[in-house]
């Protein structure tokens, strides 16, 4: 049986378009969003003020070596500030602990009020805080960042959210609606609907080759159609 190639390729192109056409549209739409919206805005750089380190006379601070009596297994000791208060940040096997730099007294974990004050001090705008929550489980938008952390959300259309460490008071990360849309678009773009990080998964590779086959079959049909039209015009 002789294969009628135009009919076969046309049927193949149609079925490929039905199977993979929607994903091609999603690739186009999500790619357009990721190109149009500047990556620095996606990262939320416009939401955060640069850190201003206050001036502190280290001569009035206690010697870091004295903290080894409290944290004998310390692996790192460095100076820092908590709401303008000079502190020693000590890292040990049990995590990070802050100590008052002038008295050596241990500082309690950051409270909800302190987390809100820290977030407001780093925020570039003046909207009020709408919620403060201590999270012990990582939300989808904080995958890869180990909890606990304070989630401080501001009352604005794009829901800016700061994540504050309860141990050190540091800004762990920031999120907002444009980032969340980007994350969803990225998931659709790479077709990793679970972790949203595998850019070489089987589903994506298979879909890519199907899209290539659809494009090639469409190109073949386009090239094949022109000679046919010219022959019809000559006969006429």
Automatic annotation (TrEMBL):
Record keywords: Membrane, Plasmid, Transmembrane, Transmembrane helix
Pfam families (alphabetical): PepSY, PepSY_TM
Annotated PepSY domain residues: 109-173
InterPro entries tied to this protein: PepSY, PepSY-ass_TM
Claim: Transmembrane helix is one of the keywords in the record: yes
Zinc as UniProt keyword: no
Ranges in a coiled coil: none
Transmembrane region(s): 208-226
Name this polypeptide is given: PepSY domain-containing protein
Species, as recorded: Croceicoccus marinus
């Amino acid at each position: 049986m002789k294969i009628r190639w135009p009919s076969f390729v046309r049927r193949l192109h149609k079925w490929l378009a039905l199977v993979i056409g929607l994903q091609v549209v999603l690739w186009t739409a999500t790619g357009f969003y990721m190109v149009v919206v500047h990556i620095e805005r996606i990262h939320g750089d416009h939401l955060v003020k640069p850190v201003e380190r206050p001036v502190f006379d280290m001569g009035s601070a206690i010697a870091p070596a004295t903290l080894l009596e409290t944290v004998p297994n310390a692996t790192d000791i460095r100076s820092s500030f908590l709401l303008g208060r000079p502190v020693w940040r000590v890292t040990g096997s049990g995590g990070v602990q802050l100590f008052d730099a002038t008295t050596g007294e241990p500082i309690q974990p950051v409270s909800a009020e302190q987390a809100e004050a820290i977030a407001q001090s780093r925020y570039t705008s003046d909207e009020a805080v709408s919620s403060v929550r201590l999270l012990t489980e990582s939300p989808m938008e904080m995958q890869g960042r180990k909890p606990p952390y304070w989630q401080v959300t501001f009352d604005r259309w794009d829901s800016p959210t700061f994540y504050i460490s309860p141990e050190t008071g540091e800004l762990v990360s920031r999120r907002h609606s444009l980032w969340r849309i980007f994350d969803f678009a990225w998931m659709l773009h790479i077709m990793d609907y679970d972790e949203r990080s595998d850019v070489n998964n089987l589903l994506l590779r298979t879909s890519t080759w199907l899209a290539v086959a659809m494009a090639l079959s469409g190109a073949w049909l386009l090239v094949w159609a022109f000679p046919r039209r010219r022959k019809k015009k000559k006969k006429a």
